[in-house]
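Researcher: Re-running this chain for the archive, since the previous output was lost when a drive failed. Same request as before.
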Amino acid sequence: MAWPIREIVKIDALDVTATHRVVVFCNGKPQQSFKFRFSEFKTRELCLFINDMYKTAQLWESKGTPWCKCKKS
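Model: Regenerated structure tokens:
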């Protein structure tokens, strides 16, 4: 899916038993990619973001991302 630059996107309905791949494209070319499984985390509430300092895509548990606006109330 295309990721909007300045918008928050909550993605539901991912298979929690499958391996997922995140690929970051820039100008139509893949720049970064990584795989993850929900079983690697203590929670299913995750936050995917671009780290401003390193310009890398990162996936953290939402409790470690106070800036994440997709958290459940």
